[in-house]
Structure prediction request, 329 residues.
Amino acid sequence: MLIDTYGRVATDLRVSLTDRCNLRCTYCMPEEGLQWLAKPDLLTDDEIVRLIGIAVTELGVTEVRFTGGEPLLRPGLVGIVERCADLGPRPRMSLTTNGIGLQRTAQALHDAGLDRVNVSLDTLRPEVFQAITRRKRHDDVLRGLDAARTAGLTPVKVNAVLMPGLNDDEAPELLAWALESGYELRFIEQMPLDPQHGWKRDGMITAGDILASLRTRFTLTPEEEDERGSAPAERWLVDGGPARVGVIASVTRPFCRACDRTRLTADGQVRTCLFAREESDLRGALRSGAPDEEIARLWRLAMWGKKAGSGLDDPSFLQPDRPMSAIGG
Ligand code: SAM
Ligand code: SF4
Prediction:
């Protein structure tokens, strides 16, 4: 098991497949000038499958989430999913994506064994989408979402980040649209992982703001606490249910005590937390011929050092050096 000194057990693995992206969301990437990971530093498809295999068969991981950067930009994605679906025990697999290109690959991903997708979409307004992502691809995302639902990658979840002055008035509209389309909407509080290091707690849209805004149009009833488990999203039944909306309040209502995550970057570093400032190298061990047991030992050791919390409330908090796109959200 991947257990830490606080007794938490990591069963949910986030794997970043690339640090590259076809959008430039302001809260995640700079407009230009970001240094990409060098190709030889990236894990190969075989290395990724081997590490996921070790996590699943030796370390008790049951959930695998592919992310990035934009994971659909990884040419070998369908093959990676297919090979992971053959692992025993078979992990549940999902993908966090901006949805661009999903129209072409949703069916193949489903057929390869992917269970679900989370598609990130912050706005229903094309011009606001362009202001947030610095690209004109709003239609592609909507088509990708539609294709995911048709392919059976369900429940399709939609992740939305609200930014002051851009889309902070859109929460009820987004929820009405998600309910009508059969998507499960989750709002994510903006976290200090932007490359400009411009995040300010005072200016952010909080879970409280989001709920207040939703309540102008919907009745929200909190879901039973035990249904949340270690899931980061707190969920509310909308107008009595069964539809739900979630809020991931990483900043104002952190869920570190129940965290069950371990993370692998595209260049083979284990991170114990989004906000960790330390990483543990598995790529070096892989490439120097270490056997599975040794890699499992290194992974366990890394998780043993997991801190109690994100440290966001600590006056000495320092943002990680990598922006979100290079950590894997
Ligand atoms: N490119 C894919 C996507 O956008 O879904 C996967 C990677 S992205 C880093 C994963 C998620 O992190 C997205 O839902 C995105 O909105 C979210 N995200 C990125 N930067 C963030 C930040 N600073 N605070 C909160 N969420 C953030
Ligand atoms: Fe790309 Fe996702 Fe980051 Fe937006 S949030 S820049 S889509 S990695």
Remarks:
- Residues 41 and 263 are 17 Å apart (CA to CA).
- The two ends are 23 Å apart (CA to CA).
